[in-house]
Amino acid sequence: MLRLGLSQAHIRRGLLSSAAKSPRLLNPARLAPSLSHQSTAGMKVLAVLYAGGEAAKQEPRLLGTIENQLGLRKWLEEQGHEYVVTEEKEGPDSAFQKHIVDAEVLITTPFHPGYLTHDLIQKAKNLKICITAGVGSDHVDLNAALGKGIEVLEVSGSNVVSVAEHVVMSILLLVRNFVPAHEMIERGDWQVSEVARAAYDLEGKVVGTIGAGRIGYRVLQRLLPFDCKELLYYDYNPLPEEAAKAVKVRRVEDLKEFVSQCDVVTVNCPLHEGTRGLVNAELLKHFKKGAWLVNTARGAICDKDAVAAALKSGQISGYSGDVWNVQPAPKDHPWRTMKNPLGGGNGMVPHYSGTTLDAQARYAAGTKSILENYLLNKPQEPHNVIVGKKGYETKAYGQR
Predict the structure, then answer these.
(1) 3-class SS at 245?
(2) 159, 177, 295, 315: which is the annotated catalytic residue?
(3) What is the per-residue pLDDT across 358-389, written as a single tens digit (0 to 9) for each?
(4) Of residues 10, 298, 362, 383, which has the active-site annotation?
(5) Is 58 labeled as catalytic in the residue annotation?
(6) Straight-line distance from the first to the last Cα atom of the chain, in angstroms, rounded to the nearest whole number
(7) Which of 123, 146, 233, 359 could form a disulfide with 212 if both were Cys (CB 3.0 to 4.6 A apart)?
(8) Pairing between strand 385-388 and 151-154?
(9) SS3 label, residue 355
(10) Which 3-state string (H, E, C) describes 289-352?
(11) Percentage of the chain with pLDDT > 70?
């Protein structure tokens, strides 16, 4: 059986003056060394975040942006550290690749990932720790980080509720054929039959999750009141018996058999070697004809061309999510415009399910906590550690 790497524990528990030269880079001068820092005084902290534009200026709670910088600048500078914040992450001339060579700390985000490849890790001579402001560190070459003794941590649990709610919303908008109905209203039209012919109730349907970890389990919890015919899960690691009973879920150990039973399939597993391209043309053949597919995990878990073809042919009735195999997604990405034979079935949005204002407050605070522990040489919270000082400390990224 495929190993998704989801443990049972998952269910428990830039100054403006610098910007004038380059509006995408905020890089203040280095200040005096800090006496409280137990690692390297006056270290460089590099953060790759997304541009918030006017929205971030108007809404300071958009903490995960280059404008608001996770709320860390004052705190870091007061301790004498250099804080470089940028959105530039592509190519050798990007601020990310220029500053990674001497940064001690790298902060990234799943919503605008700075891809820390094997080659970049070899160039990062001072890098000691990578922190994901959010959940999901697949943009870091974990094996390469392990080989170089670089710790990788993320703010586990910071946005699991946010994503689980988005999953349920995405299921409903597909099953109820919401998007075409709304587009009809925007066009000034009114033809109820055109949208009602592809609208169903969630009650009485079989819904299954690929992965029953922190997010997948919360999705199952939130689906209970809908009186689905049955809830299923596929995961190499079985849920504890009491946890499974609490959400009335049945485990299916064969993936093809699992998808063949589901009216709705939702993907809630991490991206790693064992899950990349998991939902491909071959697996889609085993889906129920006209099933709906939701993916808020990672875009690369689903083959983009196979999904687009399955939707176009009607093999699946809808695909919804907010994750893309490349982010930001190219303008010609097939998932932007793909439709089913009736002209609907597309519920794609930018990657924002896990970056609500509530989630940003949690992952900003969690990032600061991880940094504090690092600066003071204190133990990290175990559930946040992906690659620790002794090696892999989680099963979330497959069996290592």
Answers:
(1) helix
(2) 159
(3) 999 999 999 999 999 999 999 999 999 999 98
(4) 298
(5) no
(6) 16
(7) 233
(8) antiparallel
(9) coil
(10) CCEEEEECCCHHHECHHHHHHHHHHCCEEEEEECCCCCCCCCCCCHHHHCCCCCCCCEEECCCC
(11) 89
Q: List Cα–Cα distances, 218 to 76, 162, 165, 365, in angstroms.
A: 35, 10, 8, 22
Query: Tokens at residue 35, please?
Result: 């006496």
**CA 292/CA 346 separation, integer angstroms:** 10
Mean pLDDT, the chain, rounded, equals 90
Residue with tokens 């998932």, as numbered in its chain: 335
The answer to whether residue 327 is catalytic is yes
Q: What are the residues whose beta carbons fall under 8 Å from the beta carbon of 185, sequence distance 6 or more?
A: none
**How would you class 376 by CB atoms within 10 Å of its CB: exposed for 0-12, middle for 13-18, buried for 19 or more?**
exposed
What type of residue sits at position 267? V
> Mean per-residue pLDDT for 18-43?
41
E strands of 192-328, at which residues? 206-210, 230-234, 249-251, 264-267, 291-295, 316-321
8 among known catalytic residues: no
Instruction: Map tokens 């690692």 to a residue.
Output: 39
Annotated catalytic residue, options 10, 218, 351, 362: 351
**Beta-carbon count within 10 A of 271 CB:** 25
**Mean pLDDT for the stretch of residues 159-164:** 96
Question: How far apart are the C-alpha atoms of 126 and 124, rounded to whole Å?
Answer: 6
pTM given for the model: 0.84
Q: What's the average model confidence in pLDDT over 176-188?
A: 98
Would you report the helix, strand and coil content of the chain in percent, each value rounded to 5?
A: 35, 15, 50
159 is catalytic: yes
Q: Write down how long the chain is.
A: 400
Which stretches does DSSP call E strand in 27-79? 44-48
